[in-house]
Amino acid sequence: MSNSSVFVLPEPLPLEGGAVLPTVQVAYQTVGTLNAARDNVVWVCHALTANADVLGWWPGLFGPGCHFDPADWFIVCANILGSCYGSTGPLTPVESGAEPLYHAFPLLTVRDMVAAHEQLRQHLGLARIHTLIGGSLGGQQALEWAVQQPAVFGHLVVLATNARHSPWGIAFNEAQRLAIFADPTYHAATPAGGQAGLKAARAVALLSYRSYNAYGNSQAEPDAARLTDFRASSYQQYQGDKLVARFDAYSYVALSRAMDSHNVGRGRGGPEAALRQIRARTLVIGINSDVLFPPVEQQLLARHIPGAQYAEMASGFGHDGFLIETAQITHVLERFYVQSFAH
Hints:
By secondary structure, this protein is α/β, with parallel strands linked by helices. It has two domains: 2-165 and 264-342, Rossmann fold, CATH 3.40.50.1820; 169-259, Orthogonal Bundle (Rna Polymerase Sigma Factor, Chain: A), CATH 1.10.1740. It is built from twelve helices and ten strands. It has helices spanning 54-57, 110-124, 137-148, 167-181, 195-209, 212-219, 231-246, 249-260, 271-275, 295-304, 321-324, 326-342, and strands at 2-8, 13-14, 20-21, 25-31, 41-45, 74-78, 129-135, 153-159, 281-287, 309-313. The chain is globular, with a radius of gyration of 20 Å. Belongs to the AB hydrolase superfamily. MetX family. Transfers an acetyl group from acetyl-CoA to L-homoserine, forming acetyl-L-homoserine.
């Protein structure tokens, strides 16, 4: 059903921070069939540690019988620069025969991610995208892309994201990077470097992804006499181990720094002016329990993107609700598309 491919950019990629990547590859997947009118394209921008397999990490929203069913849609998801799932990043050589750059990998920004994926879009010959969708870091990328290419996207759906990364979000990311930097193996620049630090970083991140009530509901201790080895402690350990098994510390640092750089208003007269450049029919979805990207940030998006609709989900899952609450998201999307087609 899905096709996995790698696109190699024809030229070196100049980065916003001033460096140049001599060779860049982008791993991507397509699912479904492009129709004769070429107007059924859904492009998905993934979050921090996800990959191009959107059916794998967003089940319930993408897949057979879901709102975005490959029987109806041609779905594209590309791995972002800096990641460790096939696109150029800290563990991939940026020149033939060279060693990976590890912690010397240059600063990436969300605009650099967009630049690479824009070249992929042109390579695939997709003049128009019916829907561009993303949450969290993926939402930041989608917003930046919709500002840059207002004529390309018919619909824009962003979840649990913002126009500019907040001091609160940057502080959370810095706390995670400090955990990684405190691991001496990170500085050794080997593929397994920084694993203990990455485990600690993931434990910090989870506190921003979930909520007080989420932990209370799922990790409450049934044994009042227990003095140690609490369920919440085990959960943090387990989640840290899970990420270490599938991700790397160098990519985590590169991508969290890219998230910190996100500001659609940079060089454009501020976020509000930049958002007014978006022409896609836009749906902005917030989550009432999200402490990392609180609803006030999505409300700002909806106020300044022309004609945007805002919906807020009630969820006990916090920020992670954008990956979990697929039934609520589907309901909101169905209403959004009905209203869109009415126009």
